[in-house]
Amino acid sequence: MAKEMKFRGKSIEELNKLRPEELLNLINSRQRRSLKRGTNDEEKKLLKKLKEQKEGKRKKPVKTHLRKMIVVPEMVGATVHVHQGKTFEPVMINEYMIGHYLAEFTLTRKKVAHSAAGVGATKSSKSASVK
Fold it and tell me: What structural domains does the chain harbor?
């Protein structure tokens, strides 16, 4: 039997029933400070779209540039396409992401892949023919 996920001793159903003030006491101080300032219009619009997606009213993927958005319990179960500078990367939100920023789950830098050394880059390349 799978173990039920708990966030700071509360299940996801209990977290959804909490008032916003009670939720603030469970998350870290940096995120708490950000949420105390309130949500702006763009964040409210994103939450509305995610709610529609979970209810099945929205077929298109929810795309966002809001990398600083903090994952709250009502977002769990939704899929968000987060902008990473050039493309949108899909992120499936689960219980373990509560209290983290969306940006933490989409990397903006790619792995550096260098090719072979050019002519003159090493001493051994001097002897190579340049045909």
Answer: 12-107 (3.30.860.10)
Residue 128: the pLDDT is 57
**What predicted TM-score, i.e. pTM, was given to this entire model?**
0.76
92, 71 contact by CB (below 8 A): no
Query: Residue 90: CB partners within 8 Å, gap ≥ 6?
Result: 61, 79, 80, 81
Owner of token pair 């190579």: 128
- State phi, psi for 30 to the nearest 5 degrees: -65, -45
How many other β-carbons are positioned within 10 Å of the β-carbon of residue 5?
Answer: 12
Q: Are 97 and 71 in contact (CB under 8 A)?
A: yes
Joined together, the tokens standing for residue 119 give: 């002519």
Assign 44 a pLDDT band (cuts: 50, 70, 90): very high
d(CA 33, CA 35): 6
φ and ψ of 7, to 5 deg:
-110, 110
